[in-house]
Amino acid sequence: MTTCVSQPSVLKVSNGAFTCIFMMYLLFAFGSAALADDDLVSGENLIRNASFENIKNDQPVDWKTSTWSGQPKFEIETEFGHTGKSCVKISSSEGADASWSYKLSVKPNEEYELSAWIKTDKLDGGGLGSQLNFHELQMEGKTDPIRGTKDWTRVTSRFHSGPRSELLLNCLYGGWGHSTGTVWFDDVSVVMVRPEPVKLTMSKDEAGVFFEDKVLPVLQKNCFECHGGEKTKAELVLTNRDDMVAGGESGAAIKLDDLAESLLLSAINYDAFEMPPSGMLSKTEIADITTWVHHGAIWKGAQIKPAPVVESHSVPQVNTETKKWWSFNKPKPVPSPQTKSAWVSNEIDEFILTRLQANELSPNPRASKQTLIRRAYYDLTGLPPTPAEVNQFLGDHASDAYEVMIDRLLDSKHYGEKWGRHWLDLVRYAESNSYERDSTKPFVWRYRDYVIKSHNEDKPFDQFVIEQLAGDELERMTPDSLIATGYYRLGIWDDEPVDKNQAWYDDMDDVLATTSQAFLGITVNCARCHDHKIDPIPQADYYKMLSFFRNVQRYGVRGHDTVLRQSTRPIESQSKQDQFNSETKAHRDAIQANRNSMAEVEKLVKTNFIPVEHEEFRHENNRVRLVKQRVGVTIGEQVFTTADAEKYEQLFEEMKRLRQQPPKEMERALCVTENGSDAPKTHVMIRGNANSPGDEVQPGFPSVLSPPDAEITVPSNKKTTGRRLALAKWIASPDNPLTARVFVNRIWQHHFGRGIVRSSNDFGFQGIKPSHPELLDWLANEFVSGGWKMKKFHKMLMMSSTYQMSSAPNEASTKVDPTNNLFWRFDMRRLTAEEIRDSILAVNGTLNRNKMFGPSIFPTIEKEILHGQSQPGSNWGRSSPEDITRRSVYIHIKRSLPVPMMQSFDVADTDSSCPVRFNTVQPTQALGMINSVFVNEQAAIFAEIVKKHAPENLNEQIEFALKQVLQRNPTSAEIQRGAQFVETQSQLKTEKVDPLKLFCVIALNLNEFMYLD
Amino acid sequence: MKPKNFCGRTRREFMWQAGGGFAGTALAGLMGNQFFASQAVAADDETAWENPLAAKASHFAPKAKSIIFLFMYGGPSHIDTFDYKPKMTGMDNKMVDVKTFGRGGHKNQGRIVEPRWKFKQHGECGKWVSSLFPNVAKHVDDIAFIHSMTADSPIHGSAMLQMNSGEILSGSPCLGSWVNYGLGTENQNLPGFVVMLDKRGGPISGPKNWSAGYMPASFQATQLRSKGTPILNLSPNQIEKLTQRKMIDVIQQYNQDHYINRGDNTNLAARIASYELAYKMQASAPEAVDLNQESEETKKLYGLEHPQAGYFGKQCLLARRMVERGVRFVQIYSGGNHNDANWDAHGDLKQNHDLHAMETDQPIAALLEDLKRRGLFEETLVVWGGEFGRQPTAEYAKGTGRDHNAYGFTMWMAGGGIKGGISVGKTDELGSRAVEDRFHVRRIHATILNQMGIDCDRLSYFFGGLDRKLVGVEGSTPIPQLIS
């Protein structure tokens, strides 16, 4: 359908009925060749002074000008208009980006049509040309740009107001670039779009016949299979009128009080839903159903009632029975059993031993000191002990030697680097956003540092929880507590979502899933689209919990500056912030003053330019030259002097200097932000669809936990709702049945290789029940009564005889308990990816242990892998030799570009909470450990150290290398084996690689290096 | 109180998934009917370690053994290639009312860009194909075209993720990961899931497009290069083969000693075994990519000497060699990087599509022919398509560039038990959206799994409290018209 209508006046929308008839005519005339828009555009034009006829003080009333860049000329054309006597005009000879703007009031959530008439003259240059757009809308509402020379042309577009009630309309000249030439605008119109009313022409009887003839066959063919036949999808039955009116999950299919708004109609028009999904009905079929509905959906003939559906397994309800589930109730005070055994070191052992004895098992003997020091070092710091530390410990025969070592390790700064990493797994810590640009999150590393420091400071866990969820809502907010709320910003972020509304819910679903799993060990996220299928968590509870986050701003809108605006705040003192602001202003003023002085000169010399020089002048590099060429030339009435040119050059250089020396940026934190203290309403979203709001809900905790009401106090600064603090306080409360249990279970898991509850993110019905429920409760109570402190808790676990057992096999015990469910021995474990890399660097002496914190480091990634990026190497930096040997916890985590070695050894996937890492064995690991550039480079360094240690003696070299790697004295057979390999290799003429380096590669590949007993 | 065995997992399998202390020796099954029974972890000291990628039984007899997915990254224009729109003839530059949604947002009207290539009928089925694909056109009787594809996103980032993983949100495993998770690979000396990239770079989001998401890294794709060492870390640096064998022998001697007193730890045994497997891979992979074993005629067929088509030709030939050797899933990207380095024709449609079609037409035709004459066609499913199609109208006031279109686009399949010479579904007369027999991306995924002998509704993986499926929680069904 042609819409570049050159006939004026007809479409000047002022009369709804007229337009309606006109549109129908178009429809009729052009049939269905193209997709016509059947909506009715009617009603009042919302623009006052739409034709620019009302001029006061040389300004069109209600309109103002906006200059985005360049120097445009705004005028009122009084000679002509598309209609009437006048219109508005923008022109520029040098290029500009500007608009006539109008503040438009609209109703939220309505669709509008925008139109205007545009005339252009030689409109050219780098911008899009001329178009209408809305400042607040990214894509919607833009009209197609017009360029060149064109007589009055009508442009139109549609937009949806979304949540907004005000929009800035721009009649735009330029547009993301500079245009030159002239444009005129006239007759701007914004009109609400309403569906076309249908005329009622049939009697009731006629409508019944019409139904049988035209409608029922269509319904039978296209709808009944899923809605009332074999299936009842979305709980909607369409095989009889009553059920149509009763509706399904999304509400009534036929709305008797507002037939035109019936869901059935929007679904067949592919608005709310796309039904039938296999393809749109024909235009006639849609028209027939529409007519039928408008006549009251008269049903004649047989109505089919489906047999009631019997649920194969019912969804658990919240009731007294389900509320009894073990983890939904506070841990009970449990006295520890009394076995009176000499094996017992503390209460933990009492619980363990009682169960072992009941199963006729006995605990494994104590591990050797050699084993214990390695186990303790890795568990608390993620690093191997040095041979000297091993010697010292082995030589220390004091009865408290072990305890002294544990204390020392708990005080080590490396403790936070190891245990902080466990927490980072849970909160799916990553430093980029995924998706096309996968851009880097600003200042995200401060959150990582916050986690490490909090661990090293032994911050009580309840405080740690509160700071992350609501550190900004605390009465005494600190830079650290603000940084902690970076928690909300760690997830994936689609900067170009298909549906922005849905995208906000997706983001918050990610936060809710992580919060409920990481802090509470329940999967509330499974109740987003329907009641939880396994746990007693109704869908409403999901949205009650979501409501705590309802006011959180999205991570960003699109560009990096929007991220800075919506997700970062300065963390410096107010005086520093003020200072920065005044420095910034001074800097901006200086630039402007300089620019003005330059412009004076430029204006003058340009009058002397030949056309091509204007073109050249656009490039900064040419400017001084072009100005200097004017020396001696008479411009206007004066001769342009060398001094004039030199002055310009000085200004030019000064400008460069100013631009290069902006005031030092302020330190900022990646953090959560809200839109003030009033949150929008929260609704249950039907089937999880962000555009189908159901019942309204208020903030509340999962009902099956019999929680208190949420106590919400708006903070005094009114910047936020206070809702998150209410959530945080409930989660961190000693009365919360889950929090302490879930967390002590995690500490246990990382010491013993598995949790007392193995499914450590799921304490619900489908989680695995605790192997030692009483012990878990006892530990949770200890933890809370000990002030939620981690360090003494670690010590308690590590001082137990249970922790100090050997991992050796025992045939009899294996027979009774093959999976060590009862802890009759300590489980061996492989080093984590970070531990493997850090250990390689530690044994060859290059690990940079001292430098902690700050922006992340970039280990070298093979260019073959970088080639997989759409822009190879993009956002992957280079680190200095000093940085590249820092600990793995400081490696930059880019979602779309995992470091191959780390990934191959099962680092946590970062797109969702990772409670337990995989522990895979695969040939690619072996290939990486023998062939990768990294391992070979490190082995070469290792070999040099080995040689330095024992320059002459091969046996001593092998002994030293093995000792570094295994942290024990190797046997003579082991030394012999290595020496023999090196000797044989040395005799080979063809092999050029240093045999000792090859032995170092071998040493780094040993199972004993990679596994802990 | 607890629903009985909700998703058919055995307790032992469940414990593996939950990451128990013995996690990771082998991947236990997560599907019903003992699908993975042979893989269940044994802590009984008897069951040997198995490669996570060891071949597994399918749900039902498969039609295809392998998949070659020719991914036309950027989104080829369906109406300029395989979706013939005769009524657009003569409509160039006409303004029409048509709803579109691309990177430029929602629009209600636009200026028609008439297809720039001539269409002709081909084969016994009389399929209309444009002059962009003269060689592929010779095979239309073996191809099933799906003209009514729809996807949820017209934006590259999320649309790529959906075509590869079923979800527009980042974090889920890719089709190739699912296939390997379900079936393993027949040749353990080669990776089960291989991806080959365009010479101009990877697609946007890079490795996310072949990641295993929430599954273990064992299921992600291995990048296979057609130049230099085919696989990262595959070649011993400067070391002679014999030396490396000796090194592995020494490693194994130390590891055997260590193992003696820890004999019930299957992880240690697994690690010992994995070095032997790695060693075998080093020998197998170079052989698999050695094109010197191919005849001159074959090389010519794939256009290896062709200045434009040579690169993709080599990749297609490598793909055939891979499936011949039992690799389950091969994905080749036509197009990489940004802008016109792929099918994303926002500027000059003609120039863009001429280039990318030229690069791929002969190689794709050669692949189909070569598979046929070697008897591999019936057991190899070839899939062609991009993350979406393109709009019938121009994106800008000037020029022929088309914006993205997820409302309707074309994909095709051939071999692997797919009916040839048919076309299913329709877009409207402008190709602006699918109107008849619309098929969501999930239906393509369901069809691919079906041809591999997998029921898409039964292939699930328990994660984050849910039984995840490639085709989403609601399930899907294969496209019945395609299946012979």
Entry keywords:
heterodimer; A: 1013 residues; alpha+beta; two-stranded antiparallel sheet; disordered N terminus; B: 484 residues; alpha/beta; Alkaline Phosphatase, subunit A; nine-stranded mixed sheet; two-stranded antiparallel ribbon
Number of strands of chain A: 19
The CATH C-level name of the largest domain in chain B is Alpha Beta
Beta-strand level of the residues of chain A, as a percent range? Answer: 5-15%
Q: How many extended strands of chain B? A: 19
Question: Helix fraction of chain B?
Answer: 25-40%
Sheet with the most strands, sense and barrel status of chain B = 9 strands, mixed
**Structural class computed from helices and strand pairing of chain B:** alpha/beta
Spans of chain A of 5+ residues with little confidence (pLDDT < 50)?
A: 1-38
Largest contact between protein chains? Answer: A-B, 135 and 131 residues
**Shape label of chain A:** globular
Main β-sheet description of chain A: 9 strands, antiparallel
Instruction: Give the tally of structural domains of chain B.
Output: 3
Q: Could you tell me the mean pLDDT of chain B?
A: 85
Mean pLDDT of chain A: 88
Oligomer: heterodimer
Structural class of chain A: alpha+beta
Strand residue content of chain B: 15-25%
Query: Which fold name fills CATH's third level, the topology of the largest domain in chain B?
Result: Alkaline Phosphatase, subunit A
Rough outline of chain B: globular
In brief, what are we looking at here?
The complex is a heterodimer of chains A (1013) and B (484). With 1013 residues, chain A is an alpha+beta fold. Chain A is built from 35 helices and 19 strands.
What's the SSE blueprint?
The complex is a heterodimer of chains A (1013) and B (484).
Chain A lengths: L15 H15 L9 E2 L13 E2 L2 E2 L3 E7 L2 E5 L9 E19 L5 E15 L3 E6 L13 E13 L5 E9 L4 E16 L9 H19 L18 H6 L16 H6 L14 H12 L52 H12 L10 H13 L5 H9 L5 H11 L2 H13 L18 H12 L4 H10 L8 H6 L15 H19 L20 H8 L13 H8 E3 L3 H33 L4 H7 L2 H9 L5 E2 L2 E2 L2 H19 L7 E3 L11 E4 L7 E5 L25 H9 L7 H14 L20 H13 L5 H9 L11 H6 L12 E2 L2 H11 L19 H4 L14 H4 L15 H5 L18 H9 L1 H17 L4 H13 L5 H16 L7 H10 L2 H4 E2 L1
Antiparallel strand pairs in A: 1-11, 2-3, 4-6, 5-6, 6-10, 6-11, 7-9, 7-11, 8-10, 12-15, 13-14, 16-17, 18-19
Helix pairs in contact in A: 2-5, 7-9, 7-10, 9-24, 10-11, 12-21, 17-20, 22-23, 31-32, 31-34, 32-33, 32-34, 33-34
Chain B lengths: L10 H7 L48 E7 L22 E8 L2 E7 L7 E4 L4 E4 L12 E8 L5 H10 L9 H9 L9 E4 L25 E2 L17 H20 L5 H23 L7 H6 L8 H15 L4 E6 L14 H25 L6 E6 L3 E6 L7 E4 L3 E6 L7 E3 L1 E2 L6 E3 L2 E2 H11 L8 E4 L2 E4 L15
Parallel strand pairs in B: 1-9, 1-10, 6-14, 6-17, 7-8, 7-9
Antiparallel strand pairs in B: 2-3, 4-5, 6-13, 10-13, 11-12, 15-16, 18-19
Helix pairs in contact in B: 4-5, 7-8
